[in-house]
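Sat 14:20. Reprocessing the chain from the morning session after the first attempt stalled halfway. Input below, unchanged.
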Amino acid sequence: MEWFIGLLCAFFIASKTSKYFAFRVAKSTDRPIFIILCIQTFTVCTMVPLMSLLGTIESSGITSNLIFIWLQTICLNFIMAYPLQILVVGPFCRFIFRHLFASTNQGNESKVEYEMEQQGFAE
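Finished this time. Tokens:
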């Protein structure tokens, strides 16, 4: 049941809000990695409170200490979730999707490589 609720939160709440806030910080002309990191950051900032609330209610129930336990859980979860998303899960997912959809991304990837070469970021 938690997986289903997490999927619904990610799809309907976090994806829209994270893109909204990310594109208020990043412009479409910014480097793609900056845009990706902005979206990942705001996704973590949205999903951690939502899933921490679900976990707090599931483990402790609805009590008078719910707010305090929830805030503590947010802090602990954020400490783990953000570095994992930026350093492990995000790059791993991009690697997997890059190889799964290599034929459809070939034109876009070569265009991005060419632009990066022109700007001096790649060889």
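Residues 116 and 122 are 6 Å apart (CA to CA).
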